[in-house]
Amino acid sequence: MEAAAGAIQNLTACNWKWAVYQRHLIRKANGLTLLIEHLNHAHDTVVRSVSTALRNLSIDETNKEIIGQYGIEGIIPRIPYGQNSLGISESTTISLLCTLMELCIDNYNNTSTFRDCNGITPIARLTQSKEHTPKVVYAAHKLCSIISEYKVAKSVLKQEGWDSREYLRLFSEGGHNYNFELSHAGTHHP
């Protein structure tokens, strides 16, 4: 499964005409559903490959809607502080966070789904984490800055007792000045 997801990941990267065609073809063949099901796979490397493939597939707006509707609820439990995050590596965590970024950027429906699946609190906790690497914390901050475009994130944090100074800091693009860009878990995304 890891190899198949890796092949999809490579074939759907960037915006060349064959990648656009592959994104459409995989959607028509119900491949999105099959990939989403494998987010719960026991092997970390499979989850990472599937997550990155889903990120590349979500470049297509129709795929983005479908993956957002059915896949976000499978991604959130796999990130740190989620219910099923045991055994997930740093690279896979970054891949999952990057997939969430791609799904939520400029998409209110996916951001609302993210909120409805209780994704905001684990991400907010991750931004404050001392036990995760700077790359993971940075990715969590980037995701917070994306979802901050919508009021849904701030209202959830306020309901859970975060004061406005805390969540303003969360949404301020990180509060850290790291000198690296996310590598999307070691994969290329031209």
UniProtKB/TrEMBL annotation:
Keyword Acyltransferase assigned: no
Subcellular localization(s) per the UniProt record: Cell junction
Taxonomic superkingdom: Eukaryota
Database matches in InterPro entries: ARM-like, ARM-type_fold, Armadillo, Plakophilin/d_Catenin
Keyword Repeat included in the entry's annotation: yes
Cellular component, GO, one term: nucleus
Keywords, comma-separated and alphabetical: Cell adhesion, Cell junction, Repeat
PANTHER family associated with the record: ADHERENS JUNCTION PROTEIN P120 (PTHR10372:SF27), PLAKOPHILLIN-RELATED (PTHR10372)
Family: Belongs to the beta-catenin family.
Entry protein name: Armadillo repeat-containing domain-containing protein
Source organism: Amphimedon queenslandica
